[in-house]
């Protein structure tokens, strides 16, 4: 059973466009992490959101944690080719293991 | 500070063989977690070790095992390999145990079972 569903699964856009990736669950998490993974490498942590309704910005990336702490979104403004990669959300429940989402593969075409 | 190092980078094995993968965590990190990544199933948790003790285990058969040494280095072993074991195996280290810790991933070992 996959606890964290991400949508869309694949996304191919032109440079300069905006996009939003969603991470949804029926479970409540104490925090939610977003990772980016490039081909041939392991995932790299981008951000952790902890409080319901929290919004964090990382340059052109905006992360939001749902009020009920069951879902999250990642919005990229003016996407660049360097944003290409696999985006993974990961839910954390206390001291339990991290549960990863299904992933969103993003391709930004120059 | 050196990152998480996984060896080997690539591995080709045949069905029925066994394989051992190695992970050296970031200096000072005491927790090591292992994940299996496949296109169909995504990132699946295998197990977590902290101070040489297995703390958590995912839903994988007993053919998958691991251990952690006193210097925090970890190995995972897969016995009687099956075609479905072909995957990228990722190791992540963190300072402490538990989900609230920041995970640092290695580049993985790409295992192909023929």
In words, what does this structure look like?
The complex is a heterodimer of chains A (110) and B (114). Chain A has 110 residues and is an all-beta fold. In chain A, 0% of the residues lie in helices and 53% in strands. Chain A is built from no helices and eleven strands. In chain A, the strands form two sheets. In chain A, strands 2, 4, 5, 9, 10 and 11 form a six-stranded mixed β-sheet that branches. A five-stranded antiparallel β-sheet of chain A has the order 1-3-8-7-6, with no helix packed on it. The model of chain A has no long low-confidence stretch (mean pLDDT 93). By secondary structure, chain B is mostly beta strands. In chain B, strands 2, 4, 5, 6, 9, 10 and 11 form a seven-stranded mixed β-sheet that branches. In chain B, strand 7 and strand 8 form a beta hairpin. Chain B is globular, with a radius of gyration of 13 Å. The interface between A and B is medium-sized, with 23 and 23 residues.
């Amino acid at each position: 059973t996959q606890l964290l569903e991400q949508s869309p699964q694949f996304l191919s856009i032109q440079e300069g466009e905006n996009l939003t990736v969603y991470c949804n669950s029926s479970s409540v998490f104490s925090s939610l992490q977003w990772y980016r993974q490039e081909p041939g490498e392991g995932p790299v942590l981008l951000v952790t959101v902890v409080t319901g309704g929290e919004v964090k910005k990382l340059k052109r990336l905006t992360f939001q944690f749902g009020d009920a702490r069951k879902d999250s979104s990642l919005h990229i403004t003016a996407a660049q080719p360097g944003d290409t990669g696999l985006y993974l959300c990961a839910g954390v429940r206390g001291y339990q293991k991290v549960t990863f989402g299904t992933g969103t593969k993003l391709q930004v075409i120059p | 500070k050196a990152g998480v190092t996984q060896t080997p980078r690539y591995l080709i094995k045949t069905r029925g063989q066994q394989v051992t993968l190695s992970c050296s965590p970031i200096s000072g990190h005491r927790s090591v977690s292992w994940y299996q990544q496949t296109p169909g199933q995504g990132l699946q948790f295998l197990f977590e070790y902290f101070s040489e003790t297995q703390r958590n285990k995912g839903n994988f058969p007993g053919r998958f095992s691991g251990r952690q040494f006193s210097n925090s280095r970890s190995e995972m072993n897969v016995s009687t390999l099956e075609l479905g074991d072909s995957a990228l195996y990722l190791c992540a280290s963190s300072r402490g145990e538990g989900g609230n810790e920041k995970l640092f991933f290695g580049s993985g070992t790409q295992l192909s079972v023929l």
